[in-house]
Task: structure prediction
Amino acid sequence: MEKFVAVERAREIMLGEVHRLPAEKVAITDALGRVVMEDVLVDRDIPPLDNSAMDGYGIKALDSIAATVEQPLKLKVVATIPAGRHFAGEIRSGEAVRIMTGAPIPAGVDAVVKRELVEEHEDHVFLSGPVAAGNDIRYAGEDVRAGEKVIAAGQVITPAMVGMMASVGYPFVAVVQRPRIAVITTGDEIVDFHERPGTGKIRNSNSFSLAALVRHSGGIPLVFSTVRDDPSLLKRVVEEAAATADLVLTTGGVSMGDYDFVKNVLNDVAGGILFWKVKMKPGRPLVFGTVNGVPLVGLPGNPVSVMISFEQFVRPMVKKMSGYPAAGWLLPRLRAVAGEDLPGAGRRRHFLRGILRRETVDGDYEVFMTGPQGSGILRSMVLGNCLIVLAEQTEVVKKGEPVDVELLDYDLAAAFYLGTGVD
Result:
């Protein structure tokens, strides 16, 4: 068993114990955010036929060459073609067809002019300028051609990809299974959230935070009832969880107290402890091992320690099991300037809860602490949109000095990377 390991070493050990899960077929409506496990090929040209890009009039472009405001071109409207209908005739010189967006282009038409650019008089239209051949026509196959690969195996499915799969006739698609993550809260002091805590008791928040984090990272939470401080009961529940889950999370019971049983349980089951304690603050008393081949992460009991430990270690494990490329395992990181003096880190890497903002689109990102930084102050996570990362042995960071931050919200991350900033 390794003890008091660096953050990177802890993450390396934990990621080494998980692997990408097998594939399953799901409806494309359930595939968003999943990793696709098959190439998606086009069954026919899209669009399948030349069609109009606008509501307007289909004409012969050559007819319009001499059209001017003073001498507009007069065309006879011989048909109306709505979307989904086909006109069997052929348009001759001096004729036009009224055509709707998406309607097939009939024979003889090689340009479409927007309706607002012509004058309409009963069964004629007047055009006051030339129109180029191909104007406002979408040609067959200009989006994709039959047999073309439009989505490659290994990509993360986006909303646009869901639409593309529907358009090429894929009602179902093979994706990586979602990891099943067991969540077990321990401690005699824990009561259900709907109860009024008595003396020495606290409501169970960790189960709910963890379940939400699991969902947010792409997993399926399997939440177990709170386990009291009973080693034999805890062992039984842990083994039950390992039999049904791909990863087991516990909270509490990993420190040095007389009632911290998780380490003992790991020592008693097949697999055992791989490391205990990490050089980080908060979250030092984290334990990691396996139970009958299933990884178990023993998280600390304090709410902030639970959430930060999840973001640093569990989220990458869930992403790896979900098939995400390695670049998507960790929280996005960027450089900011301290908006206030920040405390030094000492011997452990320090993760402060921060509020990241910038006043102008082209200004520097500034980061401020959320307030008190105790590991039990859950409000610091509620208020924060990032983690301020202070490396080991960092001295006090003065206001205006650079500092690394990790973004807790992926929508927020996208905003920063697109340069839109945050108000």
